[in-house]
Write the structure tokens for this entry.
Amino acid sequence: GGARTGVAITDGADVTLLNSQVSGSNVNLFVSASTLIVEDSEVFDGEYAGALVGGESHISVHDSSFRDNKEGHITVLGPNVSVDVQGLVAENAPMDSCISITDTTLPVSIVNSDLSGCAGAGVNAYWVSDLTVKGSTIRDIHPDLVVGEMADGVNVLDTQGIISENTITDVQGNGVAVLRSSAQVLDNQIVATGNAGVDVVDQSGPATRIAGNRIESSRTAGVIVLNAEAIVEQNEIEGSIFRSDFGLGEGIAFGMGADVIIRENTISANERNGILFMDGASGHIEANHFLENQRYGIFEFCVPDFAENDVTISENTYTQNGLGEQQRCEK
């Protein structure tokens, strides 16, 4: 206990920890230019990191438990690190993200894991070329003490990836935040988020696709797209909540030059509108069903200083929306 490093793997070493316990060091596991495989093991009570992985390395973590590592359970600082995480239970990192990956072009896979009680994000990925987050549960994410507003289930910046079949709940920020990135956000359950269910801002690469998700009880909006291209299709978006300090309360909101295709969604019981668009928005809204939204099914926000919108609307159905089907700007 109390050592600077519990286990250090360096200089091309290839190490497997099986049925092991590592605890009580500043950094419990340190990997540099080496390979570490962790199976059926426990890594806990790290003063800083559970595992800190430097460049030119590979780490695999299977069926293991990481807990009470104060500044994150797995932190990867590239370049050229590959990551394979399956069956990880990671609990309580009070000062940083559960898993944080920075600067790698190699595959990063986080599958069938349970991440909870972390600060900033369940998974935080910056400059990652090939990210997969699949079949995992991410919950109870609270703000980072340094970047106080961030508390996202999955947060990606300048990253390409697939985020699919996860359950993301009780996070104080966004369920999934896509910033200057391109992502496939598919078949997730995203419930009870402090900000948007899915937030897409700016863009790098192809349009982000948001499909097959159930997004419920988001504070601000189920989906927000700003200055980016996105395809939003075949989702169930329900019960978005108006936030007095931020506004919205829409099922989907897009604008600031966003170009969005929205089709075949069921958008219901939101505290404001089913869809809100504004400020130079373009795209298509087609074949959606709007049900029991408190204001309109579709609302175009009109402000003289904002850029005009270019959005076509067709073949939607409307049931019992509070103020009617649509409100459009006068041209």
User: Anything to note?
Assistant: The mean pLDDT is 95.
